[in-house]
């Protein structure tokens, strides 16, 4: 075993008789020989071995400590991260709160390519997060033009952009913010999977941040399934927002099976309400930004580590409640019951699945890129768990 070191997210607090190691709500007290604490911390931070630390603390204790640190995910074999003059430099240490292979995660991010369908209140801020975090290639697809009433939440645009294609204005803004990013634009209305063929099949992830037409979720999923691309959507309404499920064809996920399971929890009234719901034309910048940030967070974690909270499930957040009530679907609700998912091809939910109107999209309430914008989830959809808001 080569040298290992503490990951950046673990803090070392010196105290009498040793050092307290802290990350989040976990702490570990370590005894160190008198007068050697500074040396001990420096060695743990810089990279060391059981043998080398044996002169500072009893070897059997060091061995036990390494075992404990390793089980906590607090040790890494990666060399210390050398800071670079890039916007995303400081997040590498943050990643060590999730994975000891933080630099490998950042390298994966820095090698990824993401498509964003809908550059509105969710897609625009999400694009900004992705570019700033180091995603080097973005594809933006939208047909809409910037309107003055977009400006309360679509922060990539300014009043000088009114009337411009959203894709073009967003690309300019992203290049201004992060000159390293390569942005390609597709100024097109998406009404079928053929429209998405303008995107490369090599995308690592497609973000669904549009809600029109009503079948956009189905369309995006058909394309994602056919190309083996992961799909993640987000949406926000008046009182709740949601994101997920992240559907990964390689993991056997399936939109149809997800919607069927979700719909099965609804009462007949809830199903009817969902099928009849219309999106709200109203929107509030902070709640859009909140959900867009969660979409971006999960996208980045998925790209970097292969895991994120909304994988296979939809996360729902009360964006009005002061307590921030939050409900989650159970894990892996998107597992397909038909191996390969082939049984669902040809469009439309399968027989026995959710009613068509209740199975619209991964982002059935996304902020509309269109002028009359915001969609709100129907009462039954708003919390995604079959309860009324
Ligand atoms: Zn299925």
Automatic annotation (TrEMBL):
Keywords: Nucleotidyltransferase, Transferase
Residue ranges constituting the THIF-type NAD/FAD binding fold domain according to the UniProt record: 103-323
Chain coiled-coil ranges: none
Native organism taxonomy: Bacteria, Bacillati, Actinomycetota, Actinomycetes, Kitasatosporales
Alphabetical list of InterPro entries matching this protein: ThiF/MoeB/HesA, ThiF_NAD_FAD-bd, Ubiquitin-activating_enz
Stretches with biased composition (Basic and acidic residues): 327-341
Molecular function GO labels: nucleotidyltransferase activity
Region (Disordered): 327-389
Taxonomy, superkingdom: Bacteria
Pfam families: ThiF (PF00899)
Compositional bias (Low complexity): 351-389
SUPFAM superfamilies xrefs: Activating enzymes of the ubiquitin-like proteins (SSF69572)
Name of protein: ThiF family adenylyltransferase
């Amino acid at each position: 075993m080569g040298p290992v070191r503490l990951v950046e997210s673990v803090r070392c607090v010196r105290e009498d008789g040793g050092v307290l190691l802290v990350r989040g709500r976990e702490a570990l007290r370590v005894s160190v020989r008198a007068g050697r604490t500074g040396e001990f911390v420096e060695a743990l931070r810089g990279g060391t071995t059981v043998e080398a630390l044996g002169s500072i603390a009893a070897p059997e204790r060091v061995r036990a400590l390494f075992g404990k640190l390793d089980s906590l995910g607090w040790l890494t074999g990666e060399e210390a991260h050398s800071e670079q003059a890039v916007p995303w430099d400081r997040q590498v240490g943050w990643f060590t709160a999730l994975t000891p292979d933080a630099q490998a995660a950042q390298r994966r991010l820095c090698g990824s390519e993401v498509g964003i369908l809908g550059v509105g209140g969710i897609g625009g801020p999400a694009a900004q997060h992705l570019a700033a975090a180091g995603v080097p290639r973005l594809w933006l697809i939208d047909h809409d033009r910037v309107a003055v009433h977009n400006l309360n939440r679509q922060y990539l645009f300014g009043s000088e952009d009114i009337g411009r294609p959203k894709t073009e204005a967003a690309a300019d803004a992203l290049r201004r913010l992060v000159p390293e990013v390569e942005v390609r634009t597709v100024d097109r209305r998406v009404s079928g999977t053929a429209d998405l063929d303008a995107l490369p099949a090599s995308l690592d992830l497609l973000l669904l941040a549009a809600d029109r037409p009503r079948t956009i979720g189905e369309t995006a999923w058909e394309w994602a399934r056919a190309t083996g691309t992961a799909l993640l959507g987000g949406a926000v309404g008046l009182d709740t927002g949601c994101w997920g499920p992240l559907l990964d064809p390689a993991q056997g996920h399936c939109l149809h099976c997800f919607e069927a399971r979700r719909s099965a929890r609804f009462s007949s009234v809830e199903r009817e309400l969902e099928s009849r719901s219309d999106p709200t034309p109203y929107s509030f910048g902070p709640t859009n930004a909140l959900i867009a940030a969660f979409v971006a967070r999960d996208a980045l974690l998925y790209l970097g580590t292969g895991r994120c909270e909304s994988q296979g499930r939809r996360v729902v957040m009360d964006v009005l409640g002061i307590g921030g009530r939050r409900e989650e679907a159970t894990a892996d609700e998107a597992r397909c019951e038909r191996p390969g998912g082939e049984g669902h091809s040809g469009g439309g939910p399968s027989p026995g699945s959710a009613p068509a109107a209740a199975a619209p999209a991964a982002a059935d309430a996304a902020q509309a890129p269109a002028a009359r914008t915001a969609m709100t989830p129907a009462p039954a959809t708003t919390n995604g768990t079959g309860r009324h808001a």
